[in-house]
Design goal:
There is one protein chain. The protein folds into two domains: 172 residues, 2-Layer Sandwich (Fructose-1,6-Bisphosphatase, Chain A, domain 1); 143 residues, D-Maltodextrin-Binding Protein, domain 2 (3-Layer(aba) Sandwich). Helices cover 30% and strands 24% of the residues. It is α+β, with helices and mostly antiparallel strands. The strands form three sheets. Strands 4-3-5-6-7-8-9-10 form an eight-stranded mixed β-sheet, sandwiched between helices. A five-stranded mixed β-sheet has the order 12-11-13-15-14. The mean pLDDT is 96. It is built from nine helices and 15 strands. α1 runs antiparallel to α3 and α5 crosses α9.
Length: 338
């Protein structure tokens, strides 16, 4: 599928840079070197491998910013208050575009060479502080594979034009292969992958209890020993979303902020949560037909920033949503999350 937008080439170039930089780091540095904490920026820890990609990101945007009418970048660890303008010296208000980026979503997995991370970016017209995820016109989710992988997938979307997927053979010079993106089209999560995120300490007990109750309430007729479903705690939003995008997962929710804000969690230490820059690839899923909502059931949205704490629910299709959402919402009330 051929997509058209002024930022197609730039987002692809940034994704290619991130993939090559991560690959080089995996080859030429140790896990200890890659995972060295350099400090906190905004909502999370910045590791050494993050900084390598961030430096290259800044270099490319400085060279390309003028031709795009000025770009205000919002990304964790880059610039004052995690905002920077390209070309440098231009005023934020004079930039035609805002770009929200997570250079490596899934740092903790890739720095240990465990599982693919993802480069995520979304571009929207600069509407000032009112700019939000639903303003994104062009977005990308690009795989940053581990050192044992042979291919890397990239998914791009332009609003109203659908999704284009490409698989690159990173071991040979073979041409890229077009791949289709599409969520699971069945009517139930029974027998498939579906989960609520609980990949960090803090809130695991409450989240596991909610998930067990969800399966029990949905399928009270389950036979003894039946495996109703499976979970995949992919430690990054981009990874979770690609699993929904490609039909491998049927339902996923990240409710950490909801739990931490609830009376159920009063007096306990809050953990790390999802933020808007983790969700910059939202357009890709929406264009593919995945349903993403907030905890109220409204279309998922958030401001262009790195700090807002976000909960979300993702359904492969409307049939899955009809099955899961009413039961889950009732349980959230019964168990004290809402």
């Amino acid at each position: 599928m051929k997509l058209t937008h002024p930022f197609i080439d730039l987002l692809q170039a940034l994704a290619c840079m991130a993939r090559d930089t991560v690959s080089n780091s995996l080859i030429h540095s140790t896990a200890a070197e890659r995972s060295r904490p350099l400090g906190h920026a905004g909502s999370d820890v910045i590791f050494a491998i993050d900084q390598e990609v961030e430096k290259e990101l800044v270099r490319i945007l400085e060279a390309q910013g003028e031709r795009h009418g000025g770009i205000l970048l919002i990304a964790e660890g880059i610039g004052e208050n995690e905002r920077s303008v390209y070309p440098s010296g231009r005023k934020e208000s004079d930039c035609q575009w805002r770009m929200l980026v997570d250079p490596i979503d899934g740092t903790r997995g890739i720095m240990m060479d465990k599982r693919s991370a993802w480069f995520i970016a979304g571009v929207a017209p600069n509407r000032g502080e009112e700019t939000c995820l639903q303003d994104i016109e062009c977005a990308i989710l690009a795989e940053l594979p581990n050192s044992r992988a042979g291919v890397a997938d990239t998914f791009m979307a332009v609003r109203g034009q659908g999704v284009a997927g490409v698989r690159k053979n990173i071991l040979t010079s073979d041409p890229d292969i077009e791949i289709e993106a599409g969520p699971f089209d069945g009517a139930t999560i029974r027998g498939g992958f579906a989960q609520i995120s609980r990949f960090f300490p803090c809130g695991r007990e409450e989240t596991a209890a909610l998930e067990d109750a969800l399966w029990a309430r949905l399928f009270p007729d389950a036979a003894e020993g039946e495996v109703l479903g499976y979970e995949d705690q992919y430690i990054c939003t981009g990874g979770q979303w690609v699993e929904l995008l490609t039909g491998r997962d049927r339902f996923c929710a990240d409710l950490r902020p909801l739990l931490f804000d609830s009376k159920l969690f009063a007096g306990k230490r809050r953990g790390l949560t999802c933020h808007p820059y983790d969700m910059a690839g939202l357009l890709v899923l929406e264009e593919a037909g995945v349903i993403l909502t907030d905890v109220k059931g409204d279309p998922l949205n958030a401001p262009f920033d790195t700090l807002t704490e976000c909960s979300w629910m993702g359904y492969a299709n409307q049939k899955i949503r009809d099955e899961v959402e009413p039961v889950l919402r009732n349980l959230l009330v019964e168990q004290g999350w809402l």
